[in-house]
Amino acid sequence: MEWIDGQLFKEMLLSGMNNLGNHCAQIDALNVFPVPDGDTGTNMYLTVSNGVQAALEDPSDSVGNIAKTLSRGLLMGARGNSGVITSQIFRGFYQAVKDLDRIDAAQLAHALVNGSRVAYRAVMRPVEGTILTVIREAADYTYAYTMTDEVTDCVKVMERMVKEAKESLDTTPQLLPVLAEVGVVDSGGKGLLVILEGFLSAMKGKVIEKEGGDQNAQQGAQTKVQGGEEEYGFCTEFILHLNENGMRHFSENSFKEELSTIGNSIVCVQDEDLVKVHVHTLEPQTAIKMGRRQGRFMKLKVENMQDQHDTILEKEEEEKHEAKRAPHKKYGIITVAAGDGIKDMFKELRADIVVGGGQTMNPSTEDFVSAINQLNCDHIFILPNNSNIILAAQQAQTVCEDVDVHVIPSKTIPQGLSACIMFNPDVDVTANLDEMNDALANVKSGEVTYAVRDTTYEGMEIKKGQYMGMFGKAIVACQDDCMEATKELLDKMLDKDSELVTLIYGEDATGEQAQELADYIEEHSDAEVEITNGQQPVYSFIIGVE
């Protein structure tokens, strides 16, 4: 195969997207920490599908034009670090082919190398043993092979790319000891590999189909039912904790097929006894019944997309001019949080917009861009409050070139709250940036959640279902009882200099438990305690110590 034209390129993109979707659960399960928020595969799939669906709808037959549409879609849909890096890989790919209607073997190899270079530049401190290593090594070795052997067959180039990516992925545990200890390869690198495998399959004449009966995705259309009210319906999302029967008999593919009889835009990923489900349907009660047979709901949300759409249509013009009519402000703050209680805390601390998300669903670049566009401010500060959201926020900063946006790299909720407290509307930008960034280092952050699988981490044996206390990025406590794990975590966090403890309890904790912990803190330190019902999912307690 001497050339890749626009039609084949679209087939490659569709095949890569579908192959990634088919491996979501497997990739999610590669999370190093055994917490219920391992979502690398899901983030990459949501990122890639946003770009690929746009590319498939591009009427152009030019590889360069299609790659441009792909790059823009990936940029705006990027979620999590893995999603942002993936978007940058294909941004670099686009830059190399932007003037080409079709590409040959040498141009394909060069575009992949350029993708790796752009991705590396997008990350301030690249870490080896990650998706960055996989794309760099695979692209460099493939380019050298293509040039040395004067390869003119595009299939051979992609075959070599897949081979080198596999070998690089297998070596990631040697570069990141934590991967070796847990017994996994890098999840982002695995996601990249399955995309490349999808590309290769299409080049050999077989476009990989999306498992679970999502025919619209296979046909390259938006995953929605066509016409009338059926175009919208209800967005139904839930997280299931499988019961004993569900653990024995649950099958992702079978459940997707069952869901496909009543809806579309289906995402279903399993991580041992937890299942995340998303479906657009006119029969949400039927979807709920299907889920109820498999286990109990840990989270359930049903939104009427038809009502949302009608509201958007009715207020579209008003919303377009809202920013113009809004009072001008010198400063604006955008922050990220899950849980109504935590959102209220940020709003009380002058946050203008709280973007929903965090541990279980990372906001996309487009979510941040939308928030930025809602504000009428000279200067905007963004607090991501999660290390896996920082890159998406920074990407939005790049997109909104005409707005003075500053991303303050808060990695936890306590850091974000502390930064908000230090914000002063009466001082200049530099002073605010200094104070808010300094605040990040002056607060200790802890979290308590449960393990979703058995593992060993830094010599600690962790059993599925046990509660873990996490101090920063270290797991410092592991107990069968949530309160015991939290007290052990507090023992590690508190010292003679501790003055204030912010104790935020979540959906699965109670005010009585929080008060018991407050009493424990006051007995073992001189620190004051502030208790808030954060209503956050996943984490029983979030703790800040200053």
What does this structure look like?
- With 546 residues, this protein is of the alpha/beta class.
- The protein is built from 23 helices and 16 strands.
- It has helices at residues 6-22, 24-28, 40-57, 63-77, 80-97, 105-122, 131-148, 154-175, 177-182, 187-203, 215-218, 244-249, 252-260, 284-292, 305-320, 322-325, 340-348, 365-374, 390-399, 413-422, 429-441, 482-493, 511-524; strands spanning 234-242, 263-271, 274-281, 295-304, 329-337, 353-356, 377-383, 404-407, 444-450, 455-457, 460-462, 467-471, 474-479, 500-505, 528-533, 541-545.
- Strands 13-12-9-16-14-15 form a six-stranded mixed β-sheet. It has a four-stranded antiparallel β-sheet with strand order 2-3-1-4. A four-stranded parallel β-sheet has the order 6-5-7-8, sandwiched between helices.
- The chain is globular, with a radius of gyration of 24 Å.
* Category by helix and strand content: alpha/beta
Low-confidence stretches: 213-231, 319-325
Ends apart, CA distance between termini: 63 Å
Largest β sheet strand count, sense and barrel closure: 6 strands, mixed
> What does the overall shape look like?
globular
Number of strands: 16
- CA-based gyration radius: 24 Å
Helix content range: 40-55%
Mean pLDDT: 87
Proportion of residues in β-strands:
15-25%
Number of helical runs?
Answer: 23
Give the strand line-up of the largest sheet: 13-12-9-16-14-15
